[in-house]
Amino acid sequence: MSTITQEHEKITKEKLSDQERQYILLTQNGLPIIQEPYHAIAEQMNLSVEQVLSLTKSMQERGIIRRIAAVPNHYKLGYQFNGMTVWDIDDEQAEKFGDAVGRLPFVSHCYLRPRFLPEWNYNLFAMVHGKTEESITKYRGQIKELLKEVLVSRNHDSSQDIITKSNDMLTSTAILKKTGLRLKK
Amino acid sequence: MDNSSSPLKTESLSKSRKCQTVELSALEKQLINLLQHGLPVCERPFAQIAEEISSTEQAVIECLTKLRSEKVLTRFGPMFDAASLGGAFTLAALAVPEADFDFVTEQVNSFEQIAHNYRRDHDFNMWFVIATESAEEIEKVVQAIETKTGLKVLNVPKLKEFYVNLYLPV
Predict the structure, then answer these.
(1) What class has domain A14-71?
(2) Which residue of B5, B42, B65 is in closest CB contact with A33?
(3) Protein fold of A81-171
(4) Of A39, A110, B71, B116, which has the fewest beta carbons less than 10 angstroms from its beta carbon?
């Protein structure tokens, strides 16, 4: 599975044209908030506005642009609690159920990741956001309900006193570092 | 890839929780709710939005400019697929002994390839994103962190990313 994903990313990467790189450099810090934002980009790229609009749509269709939208600061809107929920689910069903978890409106990131047994048995990660501690606990419960049939129950190794849970929620208690990811010129 | 903005000082979330929430006008709320779902791709997107919410293009532009300058919106515009930009990424974690936590934070944050780092309440209590130019460099950074801290890095790169529909209504 990882090979396929990485291969796919490599292909996407190779397909980035000079024009697309230029488009990303011009817009990665944001779309100009003016009457005709795509005209402004077109002017800088020496293209027509029609060309810029079709380039935008093409990059959207190929997944290079995930979406064109406003991203609010969660904290400023009152969504001050987040939890990284982690799940040990059946590998065979992981794609199908991961997709369903990603569609929940309170989930901001949803990934399959490798396990590292015995220290780390969780393969599905879903970040949830809420205005109260109770709300994120409730969201964790909703995900648990959705995943109940595919949660893995592992034998507890009582000799080593290791308790293996099928899920957990890690809440953040401090931001230690935060930087933006940008394409270099 | 370049981690361009400056790192924040360690920020206690419980402290920031109390003072960050902002009061929003009706128009601000409408725009935040609507535009989380997406902005139309057309010559005059703000005019089209104004029409949808019975406002004016000028009012929409002024309101969004204010929301962005006050950082109520952290991003506005196209969100690019990070992997398409040519970098390599992974999520990694350390189980740091409590007494060493501040020291290890400094050690880990000193790597310019560390993009985000969060303290979390678990045995694995430090979670960070490593962002590099290439997959090989990820491995080098992981090894360098292990050497520097003497701790084993839990390295969990994504195998599959699912589409999300996050919506934070106000």
Answers:
(1) mainly alpha
(2) B65
(3) Alpha-Beta Plaits (3.30.70)
(4) B71
